[in-house]
Design goal:
By secondary structure, the chain is of the alpha/beta class. The chain contains 22 helices and 16 strands. It has helices at 39-42, 44-54, 81-91, 97-100, 121-130, 142-145, 167-174, 204-216, 230-235, 246-258, 282-286, 296-299, 315-319, 322-327, 371-377, 382-386, 399-403, 411-434, 468-474, 479-492, 496-513, 520-528; strands at residues 2-11, 14-25, 30-34, 63-69, 103-105, 108-109, 115-116, 134-138, 161-164, 220-223, 273-274, 304-307, 329-333, 338-342, 346-351, 390-393. A 5-stranded parallel β-sheet has the order 11-12-15-10-16. It has a 4-stranded mixed β-sheet with strand order 1-2-4-3. A 3-stranded parallel β-sheet has the order 5-8-9, with helices on both faces. Strand 1 (2-11) and strand 2 form a beta hairpin. The longest helix is centred in the last third of the chain and has 24 residues, at 411-434.
């Protein structure tokens, strides 16, 4: 008696087809799982055995062999429980081969036969829909699977998504004795109350730069003494950003699905705001570990990655950010895995000017100035700082500012201007896309079912994502602006990267002003936010 059930393996955000082959044959009593299975997959034997016993079914007293094909690909995770159980049920004649044909199955079995949530259902559903298959998953993941893009079923008795709460309910559905409710593809209400920008007194320059960062998706570094409001400003950035577009929300939710963070399975249009502690390891930040899981840079995809106390992160961890900041993706290479995750995030960082934090305060001078500040800021490499578009000093707030009433401008007022600027950028890039001027980075060759979708990870969506000929087409300054930029580049020693990042910021400033052209004023303001080699606070 043989059976075959289709499931999937995950390689980064990509999905690889796996056939679960089950054979029940005469021979010595045994239950063997082969095919390079990890410990979680090997333990599925006991979970499957217990779940079948809970239904009143017993495994036949014969030799049972389960092969996970292709056998040379590592299989990880507990989602193999359900396809193994279905393969056994087909081989035992409990359900027919035809009832499970055309489906991709994944889910974890509890000892009482219930089906529990597993990560990765959304990318598995999208991959199944792309090959014309349906998906069988736990009911807790049904809302997630409903976003797979399935076509309406021709046969009402074979819906594309079977989301069962228990193995018994699934058996009854496959035998035609029960009809499972169809899961709904729902969007989260995202009723999140962000801190308001009106709560911050003073710091008008910092608020202006925060608006520019939100409007263009630019990286931002704030340097200031303790208590000057750097973390407060960063916490208010998500309230200024527009909601995710449909394609962006799907990409971000796919990554959260792989990390097991989808919650109720609803699609969220709220941009991620990830703020890991400075003790985070390199693997936690960029991804990796035994199973090469997505890190904070990928979970912040199309959102914000906030690194407070930036110099306190380890040097290797910070240097690992250089590649994803430029390419919008991170490749985790290990001996047992080589996976790629999207990582198009906006970096926002905060730091003190020196270890004691008082280098910029006239009344509380640092006892080791300027050496204390030079040594502390030297923890950040030049190549990393060169990738930061906006760098500002955040001075301490004066008592006179604290005594004033709250400012009249709120986050909603700034968010409205940001939304207008983002809409201008979106329309401009859409028009260029229609003309075939947006060049997407070729995806790496892969046998995965989602390799074509990976091409869109590098698609420019705001000014901060543009480069090369595209940047030249949208951010060419006027004659006076170009002359100013040329003189500044020669005097300040700007790199080619800094030149292009200055143009990106100038383009955003023009969008905020409602100007089609990038003028000298925009270039001058963009240059004022570049980090000089020697900070003014460190001058002898």
């Amino acid at each position: 008696m043989q059976a075959k059930v289709r499931t999937v393996a995950f390689q980064g955000v990509d999905v690889l087809p796996i056939d679960v082959q089950v054979m029940i044959a005469p021979g010595q009593l045994a239950f063997t799982v082969v095919g390079l299975a990890d410990k979680a997959v090997g333990e599925s034997r006991e979970r499957v055995r217990a779940a079948l016993r809970a239904l009143g079914l017993a495994l036949p007293p014969q030799r049972i062999t389960v092969n996970l094909s292709p056998a040379d690909l590592a299989k990880e995770g507990s989602h193999y429980d359900l396809p193994i159980a279905l393969g056994l049920l087909v081989a035992m004649g409990v359900v027919t081969r035809e009832s499970v044909a055309g489906f991709v199955a994944l889910g974890e079995l509890a000892l009482d036969g219930s089906l529990t949530r597993v990560p990765g259902v959304l990318p598995a559903a999208i991959a199944a829909a792309s090959t014309g298959r349906g998906i069988i998953c736990p009911a807790a993941c049904g809302g997630e699977a409903a976003w797979g893009g399935f076509q309406p079923a021709d046969d009402p008795d074979r819906p594309p998504v079977l989301a069962a709460p228990t193995l018994l309910a699934l058996i009854n559905q496959l035998r035609g004795q029960q009809t499972l409710p169809a899961p709904q593809a729902l969007v989260s209400e995202d009723e999140v109350s962000y801190p308001d920008l009106a709560e911050i007194k003073g710091q008008e320059t910092a608020k202006r730069v925060l608006e520019i960062a939100a409007a263009g998706g630019h990286n931002l570094l704030m340097i200031g003494p303790p208590g000057s409001g750097k973390s407060m400003l960063a916490a208010r950035l998500p309230g200024l950003l527009p909601p995710l577009e449909a394609e962006e929300a799907l990409e971000a939710t796919m990554l959260r699905s792989l990390a097991g963070e989808t919650g109720d399975g609803r699609l969220s249009r709220r941009r991620a705001f990830r703020d890991p502690h400075h003790s985070a390891t390199l693997q936690a930040l960029v991804g990796g570990g035994a199973r090469a899981k997505p890190g904070e840079v990928s979970l912040a995809h199309h959102g914000v990655l906030f690194l407070d106390e930036l110099p306190e992160f380890s040097r290797a961890t910070l240097e690992a950010l250089r590649q994803p900041i430029e390419t919008g993706r991170i490749t985790v290479a290990r001996a047992a895995a080589h996976v790629t995750y999207p990582a198009r995030f906006q970096l926002v960082a905060a730091m003190n000017p020196c270890r004691c934090g008082h280098l910029m305060e006239a009344g509380r001078g640092c006892g080791r100035a300027p050496r204390c500040g030079i040594d502390y800021q030297a923890k950040l490499s030049g190549p990393l700082l060169d990738r930061i578009d906006l760098c500002i000093d955040v001075p301490p707030v004066d008592a006179a500012d604290l005594a004033l009433p709250p400012p009249a401008e709120s986050s909603a007022d700034v968010a409205a201007r940001v939304a207008v600027a983002r809409a201008v950028q979106r329309d401009r890039l859409t028009a260029l896309d229609r003309k075939g001027k947006l060049v997407e980075i070729e995806s790496e060759p892969s046998a995965g079912l989602l390799s074509e979708r990976a091409r869109h990870w590098s698609k420019p969506r705001c000014n901060a994502d543009t480069d090369g000929a595209l940047l030249a087409a949208i951010a060419e300054p006027d004659a006076e602006g170009r002359a100013l930029l040329t003189r500044a580049a020669e005097r300040l020693g700007l790199s080619a990267r800094a030149w292009h990042r200055t143009l990106r910021v100038a383009r955003t400033l023009a969008d905020l002003d409602g100007s089609d052209a990038v003028r000298r004023l925009h270039v001058a303001e963009a240059l004022s936010y570049r980090r000089a080699e020697a900070r003014p606070a460190l001058a002898a």
